[in-house]
Amino acid sequence: MSKLQVSLYRYNPETDSAPYMEEFQVDTQGRDLMVLDVLHLVKEQDNGLAYRRSCREGVCGSDGMNMNGKNGLACITPLSEVVKKGKLTLRPLPGLPVIRDLVVDMGLFYKQYERIQPYLQNDQPAPAIERLQSPEERDKLDGLYECILCACCSTACPSFWWNPDKFVGPAGLLQAYRFLADSRDEATRERLSELEDPFSVFRCRGIMNCVAVCPKGLNPTRAIGKIREMLLANAT
Amino acid sequence: MSNLRSLTFDAIIIGGGGAGLRAALELAKSGKKTAVLSKVFPTRSHTVSAQGGITCAIASADPDDDWRWHMYDTVKGGDYIADQDAAEYMCSEGPKAVFELEHMGLPFSRFDNGRIYQRPFGGQSKNFGEGGQAARTCAAADRTGHALLHTLYQNNLKNNTTFLNEWYAVDLVKNANGDVVGCIAMDIETGEVVHVKSKATVLATGGSGRIYASTTNALINTGDGIGMALRAGFPMQDMEMWQFHPTGIYGAGTLVTEGCRGEGGYLVNKDGERFMERYAPNAKDLAGRDVVARSMVMEILEGRGCGEKGDHVYLKLDHLGEEVLGKRLPGIVELSKTFAHVDPAKEPIPVVPTCHYMMGGVPTNVHGQAIMQDAEGNDRIVGGLFACGEAACVSVHGANRLGGNSLLDLVVFGRAAGMFIEGALNEGIEYLDASESDVESAMQRMNRWNASESGETVPELKRELQDIMQNAFGVFRQEDNMQKGVQQLAELRERIDNAYLPDKSNTFNTARVEALELDNLMEVAEATAIAALERKESRGAHSRYDYPDRDDVNWLKHSMYFPAEKRLGQRDVNFAPKAVDMFEPKVRTY
Amino acid sequence: MVTNVTNFGRSGLSDWLVQRVSAIILALYTLFIVGYLLLNPGLDYAAWSGLFAQTWMRIFSLLAFVSLSAHAWVGLWTVTTDYLKPTGIRVATQTVIILAIFVFLVWGIQVLWGA
């Protein structure tokens, strides 16, 4: 018997006046389960537990949460990587309003993503085939397009906590740079002019929490640095 | 219930994956009042998990490539029950649809000349099978589905599509004439139930791989569209045809793309033998998926499986080198480290055939219009109901889908449905409004769960269903086993009809969603089981010990499952493409 | 684009640049003063005021004062926008800060050039 003690953040606005932590014992049968598997086991004990999940392989970005103090995806985080002293504490992503249990309202996060106009802009008439792009030009998108919008980075960022309505946040900025870096995109000037205010990009203080938690190993801080370089080159 | 709030749209698209978003994009551009209703935020749909690519004759890797060759491969791959008019439409329209995606910004990998990178995939040939292996699968590294889904979502944002994200469609609403005039849907966040009225209802709800215990499918793939259509009394086509992907990671079930073998990887048994050379001397590891999956199971059954239990084989990639793996298959390296604890640059990945794709679904024409049969067995269009993507059976995949053809299916037929609906709306569609009792009957199921006071709970019933399907309707099937499976499912259905939902709260009640999903799994499982039992031959992915051969005399047909009588009928396969000669059924070898 | 009227340069980029350039100037000035003090252990008033009597030292010092003012304004403005959410309190605090900076700057100039 190998019981794991799981401490879970609980809140149901219909019945709870305030959030609280609830303890569960989960029998892992000695297996190195993923945190998501543990949540399934808890949900069999308590049907009412709410959390998001979909692909269970780290590509859809549904199950971002705070596991023993660090943001990550429950489905690709094995217990061996996160459990300390036989205990697992799960909380919702910090800094966003909680809807229920581990489910947060991602509205602000998505709004910042939408704000950077996350789509290719090119008004030239499209050719009959694809637009050509050299492998070197395409390489510039690596490390950028892979973002899964799980919000682990932005909700680990104090600047996003303080100004989620004004600071685009690491996830949105990574995507902003994804389009700035795309040889096929023609809206560079407009994109940059939308970002030069004191909040959108410049609220980043380079503490690199985003890099530390990104489950896909991406580096938003570097992308933000590149945006700053482009702004500087554009304005001096 | 007249106290339901109602929302009215010209078209409602249920499902925010590749097919739904592609259809939505077409309609958003048209200015019609459209909404996408998705139970997850769209980029969390299962399209995101597609890895290897989108197969299409864009003539990049080979300037002489021809969509007719692709069509030939598709028809042959489907073991000749793919509709040839549909395969023709998909393969000939495909390049247009793929170039559109590129213009929208999809970050395809590239060749040195700047064109889209294409890799070889299973079942691909040049010159109608005579010219050797083709490389026809357009790829964005091994994250093509992710790149495609995000690109489509982004372009829907650009075109101001209305999204009802984290809404769950419960059941279709039919009017007195049997037309579909909308659906009942629940806002998951608040629990509010709404009557969505619509002139066109598009099922883009994807597959249902979760009827099996071991599947590459996301947890959300519960066949919601299929379940809704079956409950509304509409027939399903070719539901016995389930693809088992040769390379699911042993134990975890997560997918390892066929692109691994396209890039030069191959399967070995415990003796280190590249066994596919024996089963498919020409195509080897790039034979059709059904062929490779069966070969793997044969190796395992004959005692040449790997591992302590001898119940899997190995996918060898280390000879490709770290550079190719890092550049072309970075996601696979990640997945196999996480789920198999193996670095593919050093060791082989343990793999086993795993449920992957539902070839069957809502029968439709190339415009996405749902089809049913009248008493004489003639096709009849269902008013107001459309389907596209995995939920639909157009049928381009027949009895076995080729790798890379699902993403093409999504965008080509999502787009086609969107265009057709726009045209139909312009011409004007009028259906009789649903009456109160029509709405009431669509609410029945939801009311049943909400009123339940005791009984078995969802997780255990779901597990049982998955085990039944896994044991009786897997890669190889046989009569007695399937008989038993059908029997067990009939008993399970009764228990599910009396199951209990303990949590009745409204705010983000995932237990309620899972209960509603269980009903859909049940519908899909039963349709699959009965169709599999009745199709007495082996064709494509449907492989029976007791009927090991293809029977073109009796079964060169689609199967049609009718839910009211739980009866299996047949429907003619289309052999009349417009611009090419039809492909005669031949013995299928690779 | 987020609109702002109270920050230093009206643009995040110029604030950012001002912050970096002023930081370099302040670092150089600090290094110079510390180095001077270390190299002149028996420093007396005459030598000290002699140093500040030279024009280049006055320009260098003024540059450092101006840099300090700008640096402080950009930095403190950022802090107030992070932590002070009620508009009234934030604007009041910002006003006090800008006044203080202004007073210190004028006073500094007076000390430097007035003697």
| Helix content, binned percent of chain A | 25-40%
Count of alpha/pi helices of chain B: 16
Q: Report the sheet with the most strands of chain B, covering strand number, pairing sense and barrel closure.
A: 8 strands, mixed
Instruction: Please give the largest β-sheet of chain A.
Output: 5 strands, mixed
CATH topology of the largest domain in chain B: FAD/NAD(P)-binding domain
Structural shape of chain B: globular
Catalytic activity (chain A): a quinone + succinate = fumarate + a quinol
GO biological process, one term (chain A): tricarboxylic acid cycle
EC number (chain A): 1.3.5.1
Pathway (chain A): Carbohydrate metabolism; tricarboxylic acid cycle; fumarate from succinate (bacterial route): step 1/1
How would you explain this protein's 3D organization?
The complex is a heterotrimer of chains A (236), B (590) and C (115). Chain A is 31% helix and 14% strand. Chain A has helices spanning 35-45, 79-82, 107-115, 135-139, 158-162, 169-180, 188-193, 209-213, 220-235, and strands at 3-10, 20-27, 64-67, 70-73, 87-91, 98-100, 103-104. The termini of chain A are far apart. The mean pLDDT of chain A is 96. Chain B folds into two domains: 1-50 and 142-241 and 359-589, FAD/NAD(P)-binding domain (3-Layer(bba) Sandwich); 247-353, Flavocytochrome C3, Chain A, domain 1. Chain B is 35% helix and 21% strand. Chain B has helices spanning 18-30, 67-77, 84-104, 144-158, 224-231, 259-262, 276-279, 289-301, 321-328, 330-339, 405-427, 436-451, 458-472, 479-497, 510-534, 552-555, and strands spanning 5-14, 34-38, 54-55, 118-125, 133-138, 162-165, 167-174, 180-187, 193-203, 236-237, 242-249, 266-268, 313-316, 349-358, 362-363, 369-373, 379-387, 392-393, 476-477, 543-544, 557-562, 567-572. Chain B has 16 helices and 22 strands. Chain C starts with 11 loop residues before the first helix and ends with a helix. Chains in contact: A-B, A-C. At the A-B interface, helix 1 and helix 4 of A face helix 3, helix 4 and helix 10 of B. Chain C: Heme binds at residue 71.
